[in-house]
Protein 1
Amino acid sequence: MKEVIEYILAFLVILSVLPIYNYVMTNLYTPPQLEVEESVLATFSDQVVNLLEEQAIYGNLTSPLIDLKTLIENKFPYITKDYMFNIKIVSAGIQKTIVKGNCLKVYTIYKGNVSAFVLYEDHTYYSASTTKPSQILDNGTYIYTVFLNKAIKVVFAMIILDTGTYRFINYYHDQNIKKVYIGNYNGKFAIITDQNLAYYNLPGDKQGVDLIIISYSNGKFHIQSNKVVFGDIEDIYNFNLTPVDKIPVVPPIIDYIYEFKYRVDYNNNHISYYAINDAVLSVNGINYKILNGVVLNYQSIDTIEYLYYIRVRKLFGIPISSEVIDKSTKLINQTYLRSDYSYIYAPIYNLPLSILEDANGNKYIGIWYPRELTIGYTPPSSLPTRSVTLIRRLGSVDYYITITLWRKTT
């Protein structure tokens, strides 16, 4: 009888321990074969960061033509055949940017030089910088105030924080801003878009859109856009002086308003930036138009009409004073003499932004560097993972890069 009781008690003890054992094995115990070795993560991280640096220089972090997940799997099959990965990059030095009245409020975790490039609703743009925070919060956050030159709506802003050691990037954009991709195509700087653009007809039977290139160096933005170098005057003609109004002032003083216009033919040299239509590529069922960035140097005869409104004050019909009260110029005609296209080649890693304007006046924004990006798969909650966070410069921007690995189970 005693032995029976001992067996029953032993059985009860086993039953009471089983739930604890199951919990430990299910939730707390990691079988050795599922652990991710530190050496594997270190090797993978070094190789992935090198690959991301190369892709950033060529503008492929934002390009839809490059599948970075597939590229990583193909580049490092000796790791990805046994492991899955998640890579998150964030240029985290700037926390947020708020448009408030005629200024930008930029929140950062570091002190440094804050530079901002702003595109307004009227399609004009402006850049400014500041080095002194206007406020420091109790949690150590720095607030920089960048004052703008217009009190109108901001539709896009790019902000760069340069600490001297690190460089971070952030963006503000209106939800209706039109976006395109920029990157590398066959070694050339390219605009990539699935949108329908209205093209200009350009010399050499080409079609394209206006291109503005904004680069960054030494704490400032540098803007490359169209420029005209006026040359020799070929002819001046069509002089026309027409009375348009007569305004009594104080008798016998009368103001006479005249319209005076004439035309001038100039032999001009032009330097213009365009993105010209080159190819169409289909990626995952989406047709992307590829427009190559070019510099167009051309010579032309430009007919410019000058228009002046002149007020002549007369006393008893005799002029006593005159002044120009309004003036304007207008391109009447352009005759191309010669043209020469030069492609813009990648890499141009200090070029963070481009602006396009099509023939309908629509503006499009293309960014070279994302503020944040996630590559790979969603980390599992039921498997052991191993992560590492690094800060590295990709191209000309610094990112916090978090790389997570876990073993495949099938």
Protein 2
Amino acid sequence: MNNTEKILKSSSIIIVGVIIGKTLGIINQALIGRLLGPNGFGDFALILTILQITTVIILLGTKTGVVKFISGYSGSNDKVGLSSLITQASIFNFLMSLIIVIISFFVLNIFFVDKFSKTTIQLILLLIPFYAFYPLLEGIVRGFGNTKYKVIAENLVKKLVRIIVFLALFYYAGFKIEGALIALFISFIIVVIFILFIINSKFISIKELWQNNIRDEIRGLLKYSWPLAFSSYILLLFNYIDILSLSYFKDSSDVGMYVAAFGISALIGIVPQSFTYMFFPTISHLVHSNERTEIMKTFSSTVKLSYVFSLFGMFIILTNGNLLIDIIYGDAYVDSYKILILLGLGQFTVYATGPTGSMLNALGKTRQTMICDISGGVINLTLNIPFVILWGTIGVALSTSISIMARNIMTLYYIKKNLGSLLFSKKYLIIGLLPLISIPVLFTLTTLEGLNNYISFLASLLLGGLSVYIIYLINFFNEEEINTLTVVFKKVIAYIKIKK
């Protein structure tokens, strides 16, 4: 089995799980967005942003480091290294959580006391440790090269619990934002317990972790992770300055509109993100073994797949944006369409270039990743404030997309510098030409009075099918890649039939 097939076969389970998870996630977001309205949805998005910020600060870049180190130690069967790394990383995570909870208590009660109720603030503080510990556990499972348990926990268990608990609290107890937060808290407790059980039963016993914790691993982990930590803090600006600036300069309904559009635009990355999940541990192993030919081959195939799936994802989502917004969030969010277009173009850039950040990190070039992230963050910070003042949510979406594109262009520069090639050809342009030209045409048609959104949907499917035929005509995928895709496609279909 070649490495691309290995990534895809592992990803096939993820793809099914992610599609189910994204569907449940959309249902959850639609329920919160519809039941709380744009204002309540905006406030909830701000709370999630606060939780994400505290999580990044607590992790200090250790999640990526844990994946890389565990991937190496499990491959060499280094039990002492595994035990010491996992134990010390968990203790570090716990201590950082305590510090951040104390700081957050004062920050929330000083700056957010007029925006959130006392109960809401207490729930946020309770959520912080679980919100930060879960990504570490996810990194541990990912490091061992297993995918299905993470998929079950993240995309099935957590999201199902959130939907059920939120609906129960909303309709039977009258809870709104508090109900959404309680549902989130309960779901995190359940998935943390679930993943701890999986780690203990499938990978390494928790008792063994404490017994073999005899080697100093935290120093090496932090040495590797600190550039990523600094990069992650810059990414806080890169990822969350949009919501923070909208919350400050505009009102909660603007935040709600923006988050709704961002959520739909993120669907572009469903399949490419699944590839990236297994790409990092696989490519890390190849780098560790110094298999340059396989590294280039695996990266090239992954980039091709990411480009094609993100291209079609962007095409279908942007040409049917009005229809998707109406179905998912309702008439109250109809003004999100233009925001969706700008964010969709930015999301496409992220996934179309392939897992460039993961490639640089696997090569040990974390400082180069940091430079790219800092540059993107600075651009977003520089543009975001004047853009939000001038153009509101449209300005924020434009700033976010420009900064994402700039960051990814820089990663491509470093990929070429390290690998000697970008692995792109004119075939990429040929494939993308029809969808990219069609988007503004179909967008214009959907703005015409009386044109049914479903006609636009059928037109997009027809043009999408034509693009697939072009891929076939120009032999974009080689024979080995086609065979691999065929095997994986059959596996996905078989997996779906089993689930039915």
